[in-house]
Amino acid sequence: MAHKHPHADGNGARDMEINPIFSREPLTIPRYALPPGELDPGTAYQVVHDELMLDGNARLNLATFVSTWAEPEAVRLMTECADKNMVDKDEYPRTAELELRCVHMLARLWHAPDPPRTVGCSTTGSSEAAMLGGLALKRRWRARRRAAGLPADRPNLVMGVNVQICWEKFANYFEVEPRYVPMEGDRYHLGAREAVELCDENTIGVVAVLGSTFDGSYEPVAEIASALDDLEERTGLDVPVHVDGASGAMVAPFLDPGLHWDFRLPRVASINTSGHKYGLVMPGVGWALWRDEGALPDDLVFHVNYLGGDMPTFALNFSRPGAQVVAQYYNFLRLGFDGYRRVQQTCRDVATRLAADIGRLGPFETLTDGGDIPVFAFRVRDGVRNFTVFDVSAAMRESGWLVPAYTFPENRTDLAVLRVVVRNGFGHDLADLFLDDLRRALRRLSAQEAPQRTPEDAAGFSHGAEAKTTKTTRTTKTPGRG
Q1: How many CA atoms lie within 13 A of 14 on its CB side?
Q2: Average pLDDT, whole number, for the chain?
Q3: Are 182 and 172 contacting, i.e. CB atoms less than 8 angstroms apart?
Q4: What totals of helices (H) and strands (E) does the chain contain, helices first?
Q5: Per the domain annotation, does 70 fall within a domain?
Q6: Total of domains in the chain
Q7: 161 three-class SS
Q8: What pLDDT, in 10s, does the model give residues 237-288?
Q9: First to last CA, the chain
Q10: Core-most of 3, 224, 231, 407, by most CB within 10 Å?
């Protein structure tokens, strides 16, 4: 469906009346059509600048996982590289070299068996990177099926219902049946036993999420891989794992080095992450890596002449700026391992402390404590009758804070929560200000006679916690070859 303006169709809306600036005459310009002539650059800037003042303050946006702060030096480098097209590797060989270095750095960070030979690429974000991982799984499965003389027309992908919506898009765009494991009781993400129960000969892979957008928790990747090892031993079914590490793949290596979730597990075929989340880059970069050349079918790879040699590329987007890749390399160089560890530890410290403080306020109960990725979810306790999480979200928005409220998906739709994402730049001082505003909001909300907001009133900024289309969800599938 084509994008439609939510407030007007552009035909009858009033044109913009532009105030005089210095000696310039007042102007009237159309909102939804090209002006008939040119504008002074200062006037055009002021028109756009003034309208953007009505946007929310990005630093107070506790819904988004995307970085909202960067060092001035990183911003300066991005400005210097804004005109470089990432795809033109022969024209911008040094930018291409920095991309390759980032891939090798991530390969070592994620314990690839042979980092110099690890295949990977930058993308526009973790959604594109996830789709590339899924597409590689599908092609590998299809090649195996055809080589064995078996039908390859009914691929499926197993994942928890808590996956980011990009996986629903992947299943739709690339014609793969999504098999969602619903939430049950206090299990808010994918479990190993539940994943294996949905696998069969048509399963191209299992997606394990390192940092669920619903509550910030890690899925048990090692347990899932072990259960799939047992499945192969019993049935011969070889089902690979893709780790969606959009957030956690840039947190766990620094804060949880003993957690096995990456290429140390032989069943992990590929990993994606978002450089513009806990990779600490401004929006516009993600990364996809495969454990070795065999994990990425060669028929998906395009080869580019680069510095007299061959550089394989694999991406859905073509033209895009190299600025974010350069900023990623800057961050890797600037912070190093210990710098990233300190930044992520501070985020986790703020998250766990803020979650504990909110839990002590009385009306709230925390579901998670921010101890995995620095994200936590909390709900209104049973027995509180005069306001809902949706009332709290609306009240905090009046003070400038964007705190998403949403209901959980299938089998736990009774559970409505608020979620806080702690990012670099949201320190203990801002956490104190947030708590002050929350306490003030609670005094007013507690005086209400009844809730004023429902799920239908919630703003659409849950950032990954959207409900999935689960008509293909299965819960009792017995693994086997038939």
Answers
A1: 3
A2: 89
A3: no
A4: 11, 15
A5: no
A6: 3
A7: coil
A8: 999 999 999 999 999 999 999 999 999 999 999 999 999 999 999 999 999 9
A9: 39
A10: 224
